[in-house]
Design goal:
alpha+beta, 3-methyladenine DNA Glycosylase II, Chain A, domain 3, Alpha-Beta Plaits, two-stranded antiparallel ribbon, two-stranded antiparallel sheet, disordered N terminus, binds iron/sulfur cluster
Length: 159
């Protein structure tokens, strides 16, 4: 993390345990579990669950704020590519753990056409396809910089 803080491993299930668990849908989602996943990706705020603000859930609310504090305080992070420096070697595509998880074909040394990967070579140049899959983002929040380390031209910058 740029500010030196690493969020601990917080899963959807961990977050769910701090929600009312009634699946009342007042948040606009089908269940508390879906809302928990949206909280982790910062698509919603804790306050978007109205029942949680009721006095009877005070302990859960405080617990959830404490649990999510490191994630919510995480500054913007990401991966930047400089196409002018990229030779299209594909090293970063192969070594990125998020890429391999998204498309096992990459692990077998084959080219990927998946739209679920973070990085993909297109027309001989690296492209960022789905940045939110990068392990630097919640729920992982890891200080991963494998792609940067394996790019011998300095075309990738992790920040
Ligand atoms: S409003 Fe809160 S309690 Fe109701 S479904 Fe959404 S997360 Fe669950
Ligand atoms: S930082 Fe890690 S997870 Fe993110 S793109 Fe690079 S190798 Fe993949
Ligand atoms: S960004 Fe670097 S490692 Fe990735 S394809 Fe381009 S030159 Fe290769």
């Amino acid at each position: 993390m740029p500010d030196g803080k690493k969020p601990g491993k917080v899963t959807v299930l961990t977050v769910y345990r701090y929600l009312p668990g009634t699946n009342c849908k007042k948040c606009g989602f089908a269940s508390c579990m879906v809302f928990a996943s949206k909280l982790l990706t910062k698509e919603v705020k804790i306050e978007d669950c109205p029942p949680l603000l009721e006095p009877k859930y005070k302990d859960k609310l405080e617990g959830l704020r404490e649990l999510l504090k490191p994630i919510l305080e995480t500054k913007e992070t990401g991966v930047r590519v400089d196409p002018d420096k990229c030779t299209g070697c594909g090293n970063c595509v192969v070594v990125c753990p998020a890429n391999v998880a998204a498309d096992p074909q990459i692990g077998r040394g084959l080219a990927t056409t998946s739209d679920e990967v973070v990085l993909r070579v297109e027309d001989g140049v690296i492209q960022i396809i789905k940045l939110e899959k990068c392990r630097r983002f919640p729920p992982h929040g890891l200080d991963c910089r494998v792609c940067e380390q394996y790019c011998y031209t300095g075309a990738i910058e992790v920040f």
